[in-house]
Request: fold
Amino acid sequence: MSRAASDTAAVDVSEVTPGRLDQAGDLLERVLADLSGADGEQDVLVRAASVVADLVDADVVAVCEGGHVRGGVGLGRRFLPERGLARVVRDGGGTFAVPGLGRVRAVVVEVPDLVDVHIVVGRVHDGLVDPSHLRGVQLVARLLGLVALARHGRARERSQRRQDALGAAERTRLQRALAQREQVLTTSVRFQRAVAGRRPLPELLLQIAASSSELLDSRPVSLVLADPRSQMRLRVVAAVGDPAIAPERALAAAAGVEGFGVVVGGAGPAAASVHINGRGVGALVVETGEEPLDAVGATVLRAFAEHASTALSHADTVRVVEAASTDSLTGLPNRATLLRHLEVALRASAGDGLGAAVLFIDLDGFKAINDSLGHAAGDEVLGRVARRLRRCLRGDDFAARLGGDEFAVVVRSHEPERAAQRLAERVCAELTAPVEVHGRSVRVGASIGLAVAAAGVGAGELLRRADSAMYRAKAQGRSPAGAGGPAAGTVVVFAPDVHDADVLRRQLESDLERAVDEEEFELVYQPLVRLSDGAVVGLEALLRWRHRTRGVLEPGAFLAGAERSPVVDALWRWVLRSACEQAVRWRRESPDLSLTVNLSSQHALSRSGPQDVLRALTETGLEPGALVLDVPAQVLSADPDVLTARLAQLRATGARIVLDDFAVADHVPAGTAGPSLAALRWLPVDGLKLDRSLVAELDGEQAPAAVAAVRTLCELGAALDLGVVAEGVESTGQVRALQEAGCAVAQGLLLGVPRAAGEVPAALREPVAGSVPVPVQVVPPRDVRRLLGR
Reply:
């Protein structure tokens, strides 16, 4: 009897009154009526639980037998807390968790006459059941035992005899398995000693095959491992038996093993996975013929494969296999291992009916983290990403790191596209959560391409298709300038048009490398005009590519698609140096002329950016104060401390820093300061450039709001000693509005079209003739008034 029951078993006879006797009689009559009306033993137990719940006003009542719930109230239907109930029964009371209720405090009452049957009574808030009420539970327990034995005793006796018979058979099976395991251990010691003695690899592998054959009634056995010399393709490395297993049968059986499982056999040989430090590298294959392995044989095969895996993991001769199949930074399989696994999955699809799909995952914003916080921080982020990726996987999913910030997952399912879509959603949600690295919180996004296996498509081509879809996802999910931060995650499924776009992208990258070598790039320069008198106060360098077949291309047509290419960094250094050389020549005649060069976000946050700027200034002799670096406003989404440090380093070269594309996301209401405006108070910048979308509305339907936004920015710039430049000016109405708002400098097609370097000196020396309404020289105020129609 449990402790709770024994503590309340004694009843003081002096306390018994006629009224209490009547109550006890009524309770006895009601309980007997309820229990006797049950249809079967299961119904008896359920009714007993219901009676107890009503009797003591309990939240949970369970009737447990041998660690299993036979009936209950308040336990839910899907997830029975059997483990918690078994613990409470063992301890004679305590607490356990119930889904939907939380922690329940319980007491236990033993059911007399029924072996290992207990009633567990629990409450959520009121604590233990009152001792006086517990006596009623004991009464129900005794009546439950009597009714169950009276009506179902013979059935319980027959069931007990069956359990005893099964127990005897199980004991026999366990004894046989124990003997087999002892033989496994004895045999394992032999080749463990061979491993410790550093025997040659061929001898070691042959001993593994021979030992396993000995344990499995001398059946033919083959050991199949991945060969690091042939991109981790499976091959038979040792075989025993006469006749030996045909190589193609052994390879097919090894390819059919998933994870750490065992394929018992049937139509083909049986096989058990062989792995090194948790990664499958092959299988131990045994020929079964017309006698498939029984349960004991399968246990022996699995145990011996595990011992072989342990031996291989400690053998220096096979560490090459691990190094060739694993990414050392994240611990995930590498590209070669993924392709091998994908090949196996595609071959297996014909037999098991499971389709395959590939997710190609690229991290957004990782390069900025790597450049701003350093490679050590970048490596830590990759490790965190790998761990999060593992948490998203189902049992049969296979993840790998392809290199850099690229990962891939192979998904197998009867509905591969649907399963892969769900997995991609989990990956996006998991990877885009903040990551704490080196005491800072950073974020990365995920662009995911999805490709589903099709007839005639090999592993390499399927991975390329997923890669193509990933680039489309990256283009669709790219945050607009100023929007801030990596996108939350974008998934694109491969389609024929995605393939065509990917072919063009790859061709563009190839053309870009050639164009840098053959100097197909050139710079044009657009003037920055002071609105008060029309004077040209600076020039902005703009990149152009004279493509052989596509004509003149602006940066937006090629840089976004090739931003991951190392050629882009070399190209930016060329732009910086070439523009500085031109500015030195022009400043001999116009000493106050400034030069503006555009930086991408990755260049602005790069550790090498300040060195590149300083080198260009030193080698060309340009006065540092004459160089203006346009930094896109989207860098405001970076870590504030890192951003401040990088901009300060750029500014330390002597160059001036201007935030480009400012207020592109929305207009700033007059008299208020949003987060972007607040950043101007602490960032080491010298000015800001209004985005053309804001300027375009100065003479449109939203003109009042746009003028108010520009006026606010100009007033804030004056208060913080920041210059304000407007770009994209194309009408005199916009010029008037800018002047009224207090903007001093502007650029746009109305004020000056981009010109080749050779045209700039002449334009600065000579007045503009004819009807060209573009002042490219110092224009008298009266001409400016004429230009504005005043």
Q: What stands out?
A: The radius of gyration is 39 Å. The mean pLDDT is 77. The chain has 25 helices and 27 strands. The CA atoms of residues 67 and 225 lie 44 Å apart.
